[in-house]
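Board notes (copied after class):
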Amino acid sequence: MSLEKRYDFVLFFDVKDGNPNGDPDAGNLPRIDAESGHGIVTDVCLKRKIRNYVGLVKNEQPPYEIYVKEKAILNKQHERAYIALGIDLSSDEGKRKGGDKVDIARDWMCKNFFDVRTFGAVMSTGINCGQVRGPVQLTFARSIEPVVASEHSITRMAVATEEEAKKQGGDNRTMGRKYTIPYGLYRVHGFISAPLADQTGFSEEDLNLLWDALEHMFEHDRSAARGLMSSQRLIIFEHNSKLGNRPAHELFARIEVVRASDSTAPARDFSDYKTMLDGNEIKAFKTVVPV
């Protein structure tokens, strides 16, 4: 069943003593806005966690396969579409990288892969399956307050090679570093377009699975480096039409986060904050607000 309404949403999640999204161009330091000091988590990072959760829950079976995943060879997935459509890739049509079957191949990819019909994909490399503009889009997440990255030296009581052991005289230690932030509460904005959902086949069932993923995606993404990450609040603005009734930025402005007390000490827990909608505190994880 296709979507009959537009949705905009805000997700709050936090991290304790962890690195929510390291920057490989900066030695894996937590991503931070250099001007304001606020922490940043990219949309790509969050989409990865949603994909992993859906793949785990649905056991990577159609129509919930995952297109962009670890060690995936994307052009091989494109080939699957044409094979399923009965097109011989060695034929003249196949050699033209899809010929006039691109639209059909794109529909096949949307039907079988959850992340293609959700987030969209560029599938024109190799065998051409076209491009899909996804109905679900996310912004970068930004922390409510500035965060401070801490650097920790760590020691492994082992080395990788005999040469390293000889150089250390048998001490066999490997030094390393780990970066964390003590605490950060992050806010990310999301948008769901009903007209684009019609084009990709993103359904009500997919929407409910997305809400489920946003709530539980961190539960199956644990690692020592990421500390304790948790989804804390999900506020969904439900319009009563496909095109929507109000601009998203006006809806998002109705939500604010304030300190729970007058203390000026650095926040170290979600309980240090209150999430407010139109001046009223939100205490449930998921709140649906008619627009």
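Comment from the instructor: The first helix runs from residue 43 to 57. The chain has one domain: 7-168+174-290.
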